[in-house]
Amino acid sequence: MSAAKCSAGCSEMSRVGKNPVPIPEGVEVTIDGAAVSVSGKLGRLEATIAPEVSAALDNGQVSVTPLGESKRARQMWGLTRSVINNMVVGVSQGFLKNLQIEGVGYRAAVEGRTLTLDLGYSHRVRYPIPDGIEITCERPTAIRVAGSDRQAVGQVAAEIRAFRKPEPYKGKGIRYVGEYVRRKEGKKK
C-alpha cells in the first residue's frame, strides 16, 4: 500500500509493534502507567514510554498498543516495542561491541575504571568507563565493550572509535570488528 493511500486515513499496522515481547525465565517486568522497569540477572533498566502508546503485561508477554491513529502513534508503537525488547534482552543476555585497533604503536589497556589509549598523539587518551559498562582488552589491539543497556554500549563504542577514526590511506585507527574501511590510493610520483 502506498504512503499516499495510507495518509488518507487507513490504519496501517506496525510490523514491529504488533509482535508481543516474550519475557524469558528470570526476568521481571513492571509496568506502572508510563514507567516500565525490567530487572534480571544483569541488572535493572527503566524507561518511560510515549503518551501515544500503552503497554500491558499479559501471560508472560508485554504487548504495546497505539492509543490513536496518528502518524506519531504508529511511529511510537514500533519504537516502544523495540525499546522494551532491548531492555528484556539486555538484563537477560547483555549487549556487546568489539573494536579493533590498527596501526604501529597503537594500543589500549584498562586501568581500574579508566581505558588508556595510545593512538599516536603526543599524549595518552584516558577515557573514564561509565557505570553499567564493562570494557576489557584481551589483547592490546582489541577492545570489548559490554553492558545491559544497548544504547549505552553503542554510545561508548562510538565515543572510543571517535578518538581515532580509521583513515582511508593506511587503514590506521579504531574500527568495529568486521567494519569495512574503504581504501584510497596515495599520491604517485
From TrEMBL:
Keyword rRNA-binding: yes
Superkingdom as given in the UniProt entry: Eukaryota
PROSITE patterns xrefs: RIBOSOMAL_L6_1
Biological process according to GO: cytoplasmic translation
Family: Belongs to the universal ribosomal protein uL6 family.
The Large ribosomal subunit protein uL6 alpha-beta domain, residue ranges: 23-94, 103-176
Keywords of the record: Ribonucleoprotein, Ribosomal protein, RNA-binding, rRNA-binding
Name of the protein: Large ribosomal subunit protein uL6
Keyword rRNA-binding applies: yes
Gene Ontology MF term list: rRNA binding; structural constituent of ribosome
